[in-house]
Design goal:
Helices cover 42% and strands 11% of the residues.
Length: 178
């Protein structure tokens, strides 16, 4: 995934900061699965664990550099990482301009949102791992209902990471700030 993003990073003069989940998937995904079916809402901050702390520490270190433009921070992810990037971006509008979510399975919206964040969601109708319709209707629809204006892009190829789709997403999220 990282190798596929290098050309876009060069094109937009962006720095890449790649962080992997500590486990087989992101801790938010595991925590969300654990609370499904329980009564009552789960507190969003209780669902983010060690992975979020590692992302925040890495971002803090990066933000210490005078060459980093805070208005251009975009979280990007694929599959479970897309769910994580989208949810983490929504929970931290003061830190991130927006998110590029390729083939997400879900998202969590905090109670306090910033609809000025720019969001790009992409999914392939040929995906046999995570539902295209869920991304298009449930995720993008929920974000629209919350006041966001997410871009939704359908692409071909199934459950695959496509660097060209990431480039479209980065272009959308950075918009005039690019």
């Amino acid at each position: 995934m990282l190798d596929g993003m290098i050309p876009e990073a060069r094109q937009c003069a962006c720095l890449l900061l790649a962080i992997a989940s500590r486990g087989t998937t992101w801790d938010l995904v595991t925590a969300t699965r654990a609370v499904r079916g329980r009564e009552g809402p789960a507190r969003l901050d209780s669902l983010f664990g060690d992975d979020a702390g590692r992302v925040e520490r890495a971002l803090s270190s990066l933000l210490a550099s005078p060459i980093v433009d805070r208005r251009r921070i975009v979280l990007i992810g694929f599959s479970d990482g897309a769910s994580y990037a989208l949810s983490l971006a929504l929970a931290n509008p003061q830190l991130v301009r927006g998110a590029v979510a390729i083939a997400p399975g879900f998202h969590l919206e905090p109670s306090a949102i910033d609809p000025s964040q720019r969001l790009f969601i992409a999914h392939s109708p040929e995906d046999r791992v995570l539902s295209f319709e869920s991304s298009r209707d449930r995720i993008a629809g929920s974000l629209r209902n919350a006041g966001f204006d997410p871009a939704f892009h359908a692409y071909r190829g199934g459950h695959v990471f496509d660097p060209a789709v990431v480039a479209l997403g980065v272009d959308h999220v950075l918009d005039a700030a690019r």
